[in-house]
Amino acid sequence: MFLPISDAPNPPGRPLVTWALIGLNVAVYLLATAALHGAADPSHPLVQEYMREAGRSVLAPGLSNYDVLVFEYGFRPAHASLLTLFTSMFLHGGLLHLAGNMLFLWIFGDNVEHRLGRLGYLAAYLGTGAAATLFFAAMSRGSDIPLVGASGAISGVMGFYFLLFPRNVVNVFVLFFVFIQVIRVPARVVLGGYIILSNILPALAQGNAGPSGVAYGAHIGGFFAGLGAAFLVDRRERESRPREFREARGHRPAAARRPSFADLVASGRLSDAADTYFATSDHILDRESPREVLVLGRWLSEEGNARAALSAFRRVLASHPSGVLAADAHLGAGLVQLRNLERPTSAYQHFLDVIDLEPQSEAAAIAREGIDFIERSSGRR
């Protein structure tokens, strides 16, 4: 048995939306099963419809009122509705189904919530959950079997995590005969195994929903929806022009007399250099003057323009993904996220890249100090 139980590092603060989603899912299941625990009434219209769709003339043994609720508010591709597209995310087929989903949401949700913000995270959760359900429906057209569970939305969260936190680790409980141990596994190995070994391969072998009733299509659709959305969020953060530089400040000289970006940096006119840099739509300055862009990024960070600084560092990384310049850009991106944006888990990714690229450099020594601080702050080593 291999069971993920936690991840590291973790962000500061309380993941209130993640806790609220866990609480809501648990409350819906416990209250619904408590209120609807009895056997279904054969004369109820929904029970009659259930029996017709199932091709039965008599009531199925053990059919409960909760099963009827699942039939009504689960997502049935043959009778799809906007209401059930969302209500299905908060219904579960059993206690183990609920417990497994909530464990994965607890492990991976906090980092994604911290990175996206509470409203952005909630929108991502519901949006990727809806995408997961629609992907499942596209693979199961005409099916009247209800799809329920938060696993599609949680797979979306895991897709975000895969792209945004590639260097995190997951603590996995291993039980193999007499071998019992908790081991640390790279997050991408765990998530890659989840999507490929636990979903894509079984879906190819057994179909959209296997004999166990696992909705592989929903898991796959949610994961890749999260992955795609994370790519767009990540790219927007790198490419968007910071608000304070969307319009050049003050009077700009005519183009013919305007100093070059490199000259502006060299002469210490960094405010004008910032205007010039963010007015340039392509990456020519990142390719031609990366050292000057790094100088600008450090100045922006010192001046309190953290998001602008982060954009500059990450644009250099897009043009120079390896070597000393990349190590310096990773260090700058890590420091600004740790010190200015309070994103220690995002900074952690960059610090590890610094050490991989230039392990004996001064930048690596600073990165190690950053990693040590993050690990001590998160209470995990």
Shape: elongated
Mean pLDDT: 89
CATH architectural name of the largest domain? Up-down Bundle
Relative strand content: 5-15%
Helix-strand pattern: EHHHHHHHEEHHHHHHHHHH
Strand order within the widest sheet? 1-2-3
CATH topology of the largest domain: Rhomboid-like fold
Q: Count of helices?
A: 17
Q: Name the CATH superfamily classification of the largest domain.
A: Rhomboid-like
Structural class: mainly alpha
> Based on DSSP secondary structure assignment, what is the total number of beta strands?
3
Helix content: 55-70%
Low-confidence stretches: none
Rg, rounded, reads 25 Å
CATH top-level class of the largest domain: Mainly Alpha
State the separation between the terminal residues, measured CA to CA: 24 Å
Largest sheet: 3 strands, antiparallel
The count of domains is 2
Polypeptide structure, described:
The protein is mainly α and 381 residues long. It has two domains: 238 residues, Rhomboid-like fold; 123 residues, Serine Threonine Protein Phosphatase 5, Tetratricopeptide repeat (Alpha Horseshoe), CATH 1.25.40.10. Helix content is 63%, strand content 6%. The protein contains 17 helices and three strands. Strands 1-2-3 form a three-stranded antiparallel beta sheet. A hairpin with a 2-residue loop joins strand 2 and strand 3. Helix 13 runs antiparallel to helix 14. The longest helix is centred in the middle third of the chain and has 24 residues. The two termini are 24 Å apart. 40% of the residues are buried. The mean pLDDT is 89.
